[in-house]
Specification:
alpha+beta, BirA Bifunctional Protein, domain 2, Rossmann fold, 2 domains, 18 helices, about 40% helix
């Protein structure tokens, strides 16, 4: 019985055209990373669960893809434990590895394991697949690429400024004009938590605020009340979440509100320093409501959202982490990084019709195959074209097997710009019949002229 082929939920195939377009985005990002001095790195798709768990908050841990032990993975699970259906207790017996959730935690693990070989500050970029057991929807997949850049071993805010310059450069290159770069600081959020009397509920606070764009302020309030915050604290929080002003106005508002919070004041000073490098532009916003749900962020947080498109999710995210390597035994090593969401950028460029002017890296020329003599003659010319770096092909079967009409249809379907028709007359004269597939025009050219035309 044959099995109907299908894709796993939240995954996709990429045909040649899609692949080339995605590679164009990757190359644009990669070139920007290298321009700013970042070095490439790759880590395994599979990590120990002990490496991954506890780094992304409770909700992140639930989205980790766990890998079952090979063989009889239930062998060490007692009947009593199995009957209890206690997933957390059963998990250590049946799984010890998982697919990476992001590239930052594996990077921290790499840094600790290779600290004697690294010169700090270490600037690395990493472009690889990650997996999350999330509910698939537009712009959100279970398997997707991240394009990360991190600087570790330095607490200078110049690093944040450089990362934001990379973001601006990449979107200029990709011709995506409609973006807004949102910035905040987790220290400011901690200051707000202290100010409203919710310092002990900081994690719950940031997780709820992170959902503000998705569920709205009323549901955020309901969630926080359900998590134990009192009505007075929530009412004070709404004052912060509903404030809207320029960068200068927002900083002044925070200075007036967080006068009793030392950590809040430190966050404000860090934002002042960062904006002194960046200046104040309409595409960069200080957004008090930006929280970033991942628990390892400690300072600046960054998010980029597209404007004027159907995409409602962020296309970049990142921030400062002061002690991510500490959980691996190397404390007090500050770093900052961010990630481009390749798949979401692709969807935006497709929606905005920005791929039209991109060279799809396809072959420029197809030789029609008449017969064995023609095949041998044109194959030598084909070799000369390829020596010059010109992408060209010959149809593999002659016209007695595949009619010329079908070969021409193949050329049209593959979008070859030019076709060469070579028969006995062309071989005798040394002049090739070159057809422009866009205009239909046909002319006679020598091999040398062909090399100049296409080179």
């Amino acid at each position: 019985m044959s099995i109907k082929p299908s894709l796993s939920k939240g995954t996709r195939d990429f045909g040649p055209e899609q692949f080339v377009r995605r590679q164009y985005i990757i190359d644009t990002i990669k070139n920007a990373f290298e321009l700013f001095g970042f070095q490439p790195l790759e880590t395994p798709a599979i990590e120990k669960l002990s490496t991954l768990t506890g780094k992304y908050g409770d909700e992140g841990d639930q989205l980790l893809f766990k890998i079952l032990r090979s063989g009889d993975y239930l062998k060490k699970v007692s009947d009593e434990l199995l009957a209890s259906r206690d997933v957390k207790s059963i998990l250590p017996f049946i799984s010890e590895r998982g697919l990476r959730y992001d590239l930052t935690v594996p990077f921290a693990r790499y840094v600790v394991m290779n600290q004697d070989k690294i010169s700090f500050p270490f600037k690395r970029y990493q472009i690889q697949t990650v997996w999350r057991a999330d509910r698939p929807q537009k712009g959100r997949y279970q398997e997707f690429y991240q394009c990360d850049a991190d600087i570790i071993g330095s607490d200078s805010l110049l690093n944040e400024a450089e990362l934001i310059q990379i973001i601006q450069k990449v979107y200029r290159e990709l011709k995506i004009d409609g973006i807004e770069i949102k910035l905040n600081n987790r220290k400011i959020l901690q200051g707000i938590a202290e100010e409203i009397g919710a310092g002990d509920n900081f994690t719950e606070l940031t997780i709820a605020i992170d959902k503000l764009d998705k569920i709205g302020i009323d549901k955020v309030v309901d969630e926080l009340l359900g998590r134990g915050l009192d009505q007075n604290s929530v009412d004070q929080l709404k004052t912060f979440l509903t404030f809207n002003g320029s960068i200068t106005e927002t900083l002044e508002f925070l200075e007036n509100k967080l006068v009793n919070s030392e950590i809040g004041k430190k966050g404000i000073e860090e934002m002042k320093s960062l904006f002194s490098y960046l200046g104040e532009t309409e595409k960069i916003k200080l957004d008090i409501t930006l929280a970033r749900g991942l628990s390892y962020y400690t300072g600046t947080i960054i998010e980029v959202v597209p404007l004027g498109t159907d995409m409602k999710s962020s296309i970049n995210g990142g921030g400062r982490y002061d002690d991510l390597t500490g959980v691996f035994g190397m404390p007090n090593l500050s770093g900052v990084g961010f990630s481009f969401g390749l798949d979401r950028i692709y969807d935006i460029m497709l929606e905005l019709d920005l791929f039209n002017d991109i060279d799809l890296n396809q072959s420029k020329l197809l030789f029609i195959n008449f017969d064995e003599n023609c095949q041998n003659y044109t194959y030598k010319i084909l070799g000369k074209l390829r020596e010059k770096g010109i992408k060209a092909e010959i149809y593999p079967s002659p016209t007695n097997k595949v009619k010329m009409k079908k070969q021409m249809k193949y050329a049209n379907d593959r979008k070859f710009p030019f076709v060469v028709i070579t028969g006995s007359d062309e071989m005798d004269s040394g002049l090739l019949s070159l057809k422009n597939m866009a205009t239909g025009e046909q002319e006679k050219v020598t091999v040398e002229e062909l090399l100049l035309r296409l080179g």
